[in-house]
Amino acid sequence: MQRLILLRHAKAEGDAPSGQDFDRPLAPRGLREAEAVAAKLAGLGLRPDLALVSPAVRTRQTWDAVDAAMPGGAVRFDPSLYNAGAQELRRLASQSDEPGTVLVVAHNPGLQELAVELLVETGGPAAFLARVARAFPPAAAVVFDVDAQGRFVADSLFYPEKAA
Q: CA-CA distance, 41 to 48, in Å (whole number)?
């Protein structure tokens, strides 16, 4: 893997008709946020070669927005991504044999914890670390390049626009 993108699903509805957290869809604001972050990533040429996506409704819908803006990548819906912790997320991303860009679309607190962990390990920008440690809101994304030794190097941090 040459690049890792961690993307939290966009803003979800508070409830689902089924009453199950897994089935919560994106709120109208979340649909706009997902489209906006996808457009931002696509505009920078950040296209996933492989997307690892939690099968929850809100993460699938977030992925749909990304796929519409950056089509062509492979996708794998993995049940173990649903509410996974940082170590599980890292393991799943690292075991991918994709040589290009891997995108993980999943949930907090695991994504936030992994982003903080990678920023601390690699001495990422202090401003990134402070912001991610404080909050990793819906539709936030952090991009890491992976160097020749397999170390993560923070590249970009995106938060949803307030007006989304």
A: 10
Model pLDDT, residue 58: 98
Domain-embedded: residue 23? yes
Per the domain annotation, does 95 fall within a domain?
A: yes
Q: Judge whether 164 lies within some domain.
A: no
CA dihedral for 141, 135, 106, 64, sign (positive or negative): negative
pLDDT score for 164? 47
- 67 band by pLDDT with thresholds 50, 70 and 90: very high
| Lowest-confidence region among 33-42, 94-103, 106-115 | 94-103
- The percent of residues above 90 in pLDDT, for the chain, comes to 87
Six-digit token string for 92: 């799943």
Using DSSP, state whether 38 is helix, strand or coil.
Answer: helix
| Cα distances (angstroms) measured from residue 16 to each of 9, 24, 83, 98, 159 | 16, 5, 17, 34, 25
Residue ranges making up the domain that contains 130: 3-158
What does DSSP say about strands 3-8 and 141-146: parallel, antiparallel, or unpaired? antiparallel
Q: What is the CATH number of the domain that holds 25?
A: 3.40.50.1240
Residue 40: inside a domain: yes
Q: How many domains does the chain have?
A: 1
Percentage helix, strand, coil, to 5, in the chain? Answer: 40, 20, 40
